[in-house]
Amino acid sequence: MQEVHDYFKSLCPDLHVTRGEYDEDSRYPENKTLTIGQFKLGICHGHQVIPWGDLDSLAMLQRQLDVDILVTGHTHQFKAYKHEGGVVINPGSATGAYSSFTYDVNPSFVLMDIDGLRVVVYVYELIDGEVKVDKIDFKKTATTRSAH
Amino acid sequence: MMLNGAEDEDKWLAEGIAGIQQNAFYMHRALDSNNLREVLKYSAQMLSELRTSKLSPHKYYELYMRAFDELRKLEMFFKDESKHGVSVVDLYELVQHAGNILPRLYLLCTVGSVYIKSKEAPAKDVLKDLVEMCRGVQHPIRGLFLRSYLAQISRDKLPDIGSEYEGGADTVMDAVEFVLQNFTEMNKLWVRLQNQGLGKLREKREKERSELRDLVGKNLHVLGQIEGIDLQMYKDTVLPRVLEQVVNCKDELAQYYLMDCIIQVFPDEYHLQTLEILLGAFPQLQPTVDIKTVLSQLMERLSNYAASNPEVLPEFLQVEAFAKLSSAIGKVIEAQVDMPIVGAITLYVSLLTFTLRVHPDRLDYVDQVLGACVKKLSSGQKLEDSRATKQVVALLSAPLEKYSDIVSALTLSNYPRVMDHLDNGTNKVMAMVIIQSIMKNNTCISTADKVEVLFELIKGLIKDLDGTGVDELDEEDFKEEQNSVARLIHMLYNDEPQEMLKIICTVRKHIMAGGVKRLPFTIPPLVFSALRLVRHLQGQDGEIVGEEVPATPKKIFQLLNQTIEALPSVPSPELALRLYLQCAEAANDCDLEHAAYEFFTQAFILYEEEIADSKAQVTAIHLIIGSLQRMNVFGIENRDTLTHKATGYSARLLKKPDQCRAVYACSHLFWVDDQDGIKDGERVLLCLKRALRIANAAQQMANVARGSSGPVTLFVEILNKYLYFFEKGNQQITSSAIQGLVELINTEMQSDSTTQNPTSDAFFASTLRYIQFQKQKGGLIGEKYESIKV
């Protein structure tokens, strides 16, 4: 939706969007990769990866895109997985929208601080009217290509 | 011509000033030598300059001020009897021998000031004498300045309560009488100025009058400051006398200015208590007087008074302020037949503002104001004036801003009636204002009745109003409108399921009548609202007796079916398909096999008949597979039918790579990872093998068509799927099969006819790395992977 797109652009002009299952705009690609600092990131909404929300299948996509961090969604449930191939992050739904996948969606979003070989993931969740913040650390070893 | 006049005036003014200065010089000499005779002679000569009729008020003022300054010195001289040896009583008589009346009266006033100060006569007597003597000057400008001088020098000598001039026979009443008389005479002079001069000079006259108005108004200020005037005296004497003069002078300029003056000068408390008298004057004023501005001023002052002094609110009720103002406005509108509609509406806006500030809890008053407005709007005058329209919007927006809970505005019965009088464009603008108010205040509308009223109000957005077609609208604006409506639908909510269902039905009724262009915006939020309710009700499937549409998941799914089926003809088949799949999943969670099957049927029908675009088909089939994979409510037959359909369509996609991917996605239909889930290893393998065959065929086709067989990506993807099921424990997937696939890929990559591709290289490399990693893991996994060599 143009209004939402414009709103995000006002937060940060460097905006990357991939196609969701209700997006009619074919400008948005099915997936996207980009490099930030020492990390390669991949973005994909996730309705394309079956079974939905399945870690192993998402890991396959991660291998296919050859990225350290895979950002995905669709399930409206916050998840952060660490595996030998890298990190998979699902920031959940920022609006708490209905999902057939998840009951009782709590609105959430994620900020990632990428610094050298380290990524700190801050997750903000709105639970019962209060904002709760949590953080998770990931380090990438310089020698291997995967994150641990 | 005008320029000459202005130049001439400057010349005359300069001459006048010179005259004053010259005579003042001699007067000073006489003052210094205590020569009363000479003083009187030269002061009279000096004051004669004020006899001119050649100057406009602006210029005359300059001349007057010069004289005024000199008269101060004169007064000091008069006061000091030792200097001139004449008693003030005799002096009072002496100055009356001056030849011309104007200098004579200026001198008399000056002596009079000294006389009052000396207390040799009661203040009231001197004042009365002076105010009456001034009648001798009937020339408007000269008379006004003379009386202004009188007002000036008498200000501090009025027999007010607590003043030194009070006592005995002198009372406040005398002070009041004096000021009132001076005021009355000055007003008469002022009005007379209007009638002088030729028609052509009318504008000039009005400008001159404007310049003089403060001289007249000053008297009211003086009255306002007389401490001895209490409410009773104001009510019985002051106000009626002032109003009498205002009404009787029948002059538009004077009436407007003086009414405004009265309102500004006297305390709000007095206005509240004399409301009836004050308002009674309005219909008696000239029809051309801009009463609405004065009335608005009055109402604004009273609103502010109420706002800063909440303790006086009972007074407002006691004097029935609202009723009186309301009635006064009605009379004014009735009396001034030529008043343009914008004037009437502006009055109502002022009254509404007043009501919202003074009686915010009285929704009946607010509704009354709206009702009066409706009556005026219905009287035939069309709202073609854009200013009038703006005022109506202001009228309708005021309650929204005041009552952040829009529900109050919804109870105003006249609100929708006012909206009906707006043209279609403005009606929609107003509807958007209403929605924005709800969104801003996070208001939740919680009953079907209120929703009904709300949707009536915003009907301009919900459907095409008579006369407009949707095509006329700018597309961007239309999208914005409909997105607002969509957002609004999420604000309609009640915890109680039966009421929530009523709300959903009400919304549905309205949006289904909105025409095909609106449905893709309005149906999705309704569907999700309904699915939320289903989730709330999950498990409760008992029949609720007595309700026409019981709040059960089954009933809601029926409703959803009937709603979504309107989408394909918009045409929005893809959206419909997605919504059907959402419903199927929800039905699954409610254990309703038939409903879920029906939804899948509808989705497949859409796929078959309405989705022709190859890219759209790819996405659609994946969505179907993804949803189907999660279904656990189907019995074997139903499940088989649906999976058969899904795999069939997957294999029939247009492009081979798409076929391949869809087919291996279908492998997951036969393997669900939870404890009761299906785990049909054979059929999984069948899918994967089929995918492999398709990948091979794709390679060969590419070889023939393009000369090289394309990248090995598909093979690597399939390999990854083999690994997936291998790990999950599918016995049909052997390590040798995996080994074979690895070698196949290696071979293909080294072959000349294969396109080199860094992406697929990297993918294969990371897959091998993964296998290596698993091998090193040890334990059961390590064992599994042991025989695979990479």
UniProtKB/TrEMBL annotation, chain A:
Keyword flag Protein transport: yes
Entry GO terms, CC: cytoplasmic vesicle; cytosol; retromer complex
InterPro entries, A to Z: Calcineurin-like_PHP_lpxH, Metallo-depent_PP-like, Phosphodiesterase_MJ0936/Vps29, Vps29
Gene3D superfamilies linked: 3.60.21.10
Keywords: Protein transport, Transport
Presence of the UniProt keyword NADP in the record: no
The protein, known as: Vacuolar protein sorting-associated protein 29
Higher taxonomy: Eukaryota, Viridiplantae, Streptophyta, Embryophyta, Tracheophyta
From TrEMBL, chain B:
InterPro entries xrefs: ARM-type_fold, Vps35, Vps35_C
KW Membrane (keyword) present: yes
Highest taxon above the source species: Eukaryota
GO CC, any one term: late endosome
Membrane topology, record value: Peripheral membrane protein
Primary residence: cytoplasm
Family named by the database record: Belongs to the VPS35 family.
Role played: Plays a role in vesicular protein sorting.
Protein name: Vacuolar protein sorting-associated protein 35
Organism of derivation: Rubroshorea leprosula
